[in-house]
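Known limitations

Files may contain more than one protein. Parsers should not assume a single record per file. Below, a two-record file is shown to illustrate correct handling: read the sequence, read the token line, then continue until end of file.
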Amino acid sequence: MPALGAILTAVITPFREADLSVDEDAFVALLAHLAANGSDGFVVCGTTGEAPTLTDEEHLDLIGLAVREKPAGATIIAGVGSNDTRHALHLTERACELGADALLSVTPYYNRPNRRGILAHYREISRAADRPIVLYNIPQRTGTDLPNDLLAELAQFDHIDAVKQANSANLAQVDGLELYTGNDEDFARTLDMGGVGGILVASHFVGPQMRRMVDEPEQRAAIDATLQPFFAALGVGPLAMTTKAGLNLLGHAAGVPRLPLVPADAAEIAVIREALVSQGLLMKDTA
């Protein structure tokens, strides 16, 4: 088992429907539920956690809450990325002070730095950290890819120990980095190639099955085949939106997304409901 765990759930941030404030009680309850259903740890304040809509105060309060209330044995990986290096340094330093077990640092987005800029950015982040950094490569969101030769160069910096690879075309072992997939549909493939696990969203729902994919490699392909349609169904909309809709259907207090994300509509909810039924998480006669 890798130090941070194999199944790291990119946890949602529950918001109260009345005023869209952070529902801390629901957040803590969700961590406990996920830990009891296969999750080894949690990425807090990532994309699925709607970090772009959190104030810095909310962001850091959630990291601190997760550290204080984490289930026994679980790890907390704090999202600390920004397209402003100064801001990323601030979040990195504060997350370390708050006691996060590791840091998730996304490639700077929108301003799209070149290779030298990426190296300079992460050199500063590595100097500010005193615990493991997980790089996050997701060019479909950031506009910039980290090719594997650049990842290998970044792995030479202190504390840069792993990568969350969300570009399926780049999915490969890189010297000096533990490999996590950022795509649920690539989880089995990542484990098969010797990767340590995934930073996952479907584990909000099918954590026990994903746990079996780690613990029972001889059954991995068969389990993966049964889960691929579920992964696809969650992709009917932005994952923060669809995950909240699914959790609400199961009775968890997930609330609604903050704008610019909107709640799932009737057609999207129908897709998500059917996917939950297919996994035995909802009874068909209640769907």
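...continuing to the second record:
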Amino acid sequence: METVYIVDGRRTPQLKTTGKPGSFSASDLAVASARDLLIEMPFTAHDIDEVIIGCVMPDASEANIARQIALRIGCDTNISAWTVQRNCASGMQAIDSGMNSIQTGKSEIVLVGGTEVMSRAPILWNNSMINWLSQWFRIRAYSLLDNVKYVRQLFNLRPSFFKPVFSLLKGLKDPLIDLSMGQTAENLAYHFDISRSDMDRYALQSHQRLSHAVRQGKMEDEITPVYNTNNHYFTQDNGLREDSTVEKLSKLKPVFDRKNGSVTAGNSAQISDGAASIFLASAKAVKKHDLKVLGKIIDCHWVGLTPEEMGLGPAYAIPPLLNKHQLTMNDIDFWEINEAFAAQVIACQKALNDKSFCQNELKLKDKLGLILDEKLNIDGGGISLGHPVGASGSRIALHLAHTLKQQIRKQKTLKPKPLRGIAALCIGGGQGGAILIESIGDQ
């Protein structure tokens, strides 16, 4: 198979929702990150063979959002552009699909990524109102009788018809099991005996790590500023709470199980807007354009599991990926597990280090081992910087590639040791995905 390289990537700041529509559409954010990335490349938009973008809730005017993004950044009209949707892993699915296109020889340079504007999730009419409107528009007032029909239809209108349907809340609930994603996190907290204080301490750590990363300038090569029409600009993720403490977090009330629960807004991922763009290239394209690269993709793996415990997706997806490439936990230098919920990340750590779980659920002979805290989400995650669902899969893969590159540079040797990392997500509906990335020598 053709080697697939991660050339480089950019992402927008992840902007926490405030209860009203954000300043940018999903395509606006994706275009901002892709244009900034393209400017840094030695090739042009005409050299891009394919565009693949993950998005869960595009605006009604953004059908096949990947095509709009491709044309807006100047790609040729004859290139292929398509949108993928795998819930929280849509951005990672875009990477996997781009990798497959290069491996099979269909493309040499592919723009992949993900975008989501959760603040603009549509608010819809309920079915009763839709049915009433359908009947209303069928009436044609050509005669006195028709006017009477109009009046009668008005009397059929009920206050309950105006009750809106919030698509964001619908999307965050699994209709097959009638549980929200937060309720599945409560299941994991109960199953793995994860306390409220464990979750709050993890949430605080996420904010502290992101704060440290920002102060150290670790995100500067990753984030591109975005500007709105009111001359406002954003250069950093705005969900960071540097004044957060365990005491403050402990005062928040449970959201998904108000009586007995432990999952709160403070130990859950923030609802946010954001986008990430990444260029993938074949070895031929790397040589042709003399490209410097962040790393290479070794493999990607997907699994399914019970929807009631969908947060364990990484725990199910990681072992087959390691086994396929004859790797152990100790062979992985850094991990990115998307922080949908603190309970979910902690549960994945516990599950992989639990002999009974690994034997019964993963069919392993022994426990896989512990993902060490000092290797996991070292610069924070969804709890501190947000989780725009269509973008997170590409964001964590991009950040992992940057982390590996930064650590390679710290070795300060002519032949630095290659480093490996795994980025993984849980996926609403009961799936998991994981991608294995390897660094190459400093360039």
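Parsers that stop after the first record will miss the second one. For reference, the second record is described as follows. The mean pLDDT is 94.
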